[in-house]
From TrEMBL:
GO molecular function, one term: chlorophyll synthetase activity
One term under GO cellular component: membrane
Lineage of source species: Bacteria, Pseudomonadati, Pseudomonadota, Betaproteobacteria, Burkholderiales
Membrane spanning residue stretches: 93-126, 147-167, 173-193, 214-235, 241-261, 268-290
Name assigned to this protein: Chlorophyll a synthase ChlG
GO BP, sorted A to Z: chlorophyll biosynthetic process
Source organism of this protein record: Piscinibacter sakaiensis (Ideonella sakaiensis)
Top EC class of this enzyme: transferase
Domain of life: Bacteria
Length: 297
């Protein structure tokens, strides 16, 4: 296929990875709920914000990552669009640049706060994958950047859009930060499938740096500890029912983690398919706790 010919839409869709859009869209929705603002007259903003969080900014990050990871993917996942040749030439880069521009255009319609958040998120997306920073070379920094964008920034932006251009209050931002810290562990789970390629290409993911067992223990601690802080905060904010709900979800995750830790490399995907749903369920319960407490008022 000539690099001048248009790539197949299926290859472009695969590059943009729609399945990855869910976490930031969910986090944006949690920020909407936590704001306490009525949805009735603001649903167009919410819909636009969901598109910004998922099909725009998150999709951009996926395209950027696949372009700059094409040599690693040729080892780990040669069937992906770029190493397989289904996106020939520099099409991966062109799509990443185009989606960056589209994301900024959409964000500009949602006000200065959302626009600023989009700029910050896109800068992190490029810094994560592209040289000279290429944050993903260090699993501590790279996973932190991803977790912040996927959870905290999206949550805060959802609240800001609902509040018509002002940031949500300190309690909402604190929960957004805590769930970002926990998401660092979720990002580490994704690294178990790429250990060989990462090691050969000098990518210092936590499984490469700490070993499989060490990275698995760090991932579990990173997920559990912030959620326990959330439970304590909700109790302190006078929301015992919601705190109990989050606590039950944390307990369920801990039970699953015991099975994961027995064979982390083989069961990382297994845990992701089960434990991450419990994690994001706790996010929504926490958002409703703030709504009940009037935290977004």
């Amino acid at each position: 296929m000539s690099s001048l010919s248009l790539p197949a839409p299926s290859a472009v869709a695969e590059l943009l990875k729609p399945i990855t859009w869910f976490p930031p869209m969910w986090a944006f929705g949690c920020g909407v709920v936590a704001s306490g603002e009525p949805l009735a007259d603001r649903w167009p903003l919410v819909l636009a914000g969901l598109v910004l969080a998922g099909p725009a900014v998150c999709a951009t990050s996926q395209a950027v990552n696949d372009w700059f990871d094409r040599e690693v993917d040729a080892i780990n996942e040669p069937q992906r669009p770029i190493p397989s040749g289904r996106l020939p030439g520099r099409w991966g880069l062109y799509i990443a640049l185009a989606w960056t521009a589209l994301s900024l255009g959409l964000a500009s319609l949602l006000g200065p706060v959302a626009f600023g958040a989009a700029i910050f998120g896109l800068l992190l997306a490029w810094a994560y994958s592209a040289p000279p920073l290429r944050l993903k070379r260090n699993g501590w920094w790279g996973n932190s950047a991803c977790a912040l964008c996927y959870e905290g920034l999206a949550w805060a932006t959802g609240g800001a859009v609902m509040m018509l251009g002002t940031w949500p209050d300190a309690r909402s931002l604190l929960l957004a930060l805590l769930y970002s810290l926990g998401a660092h562990g979720i990002m580490t789970l994704n690294d178990f499938k790429a250990i060989e390629g990462d090691r050969r290409m000098g990518i210092g993911s936590l499984p490469v740096r700490l070993g499989v067992d060490g990275a698995a223990r760090v991932a579990c601690a990173a997920m559990l500890l912030p959620q326990l802080v959330v439970v304590a905060l909700l109790m302190g904010w006078g929301q015992p029912v919601h705190a109990t709900g989050v606590g039950a979800l944390v307990a369920a995750q801990a039970l699953l983690m015991r099975h994961f830790l027995a064979a982390p490399r083989a069961r990382a995907l297994w845990y992701s398919a089960r434990g991450v749903g419990l994690y994001v369920g706790g996010m929504l319960v926490s958002a409703f706790a703030l709504r009940a407490a009037g935290a977004g008022a």
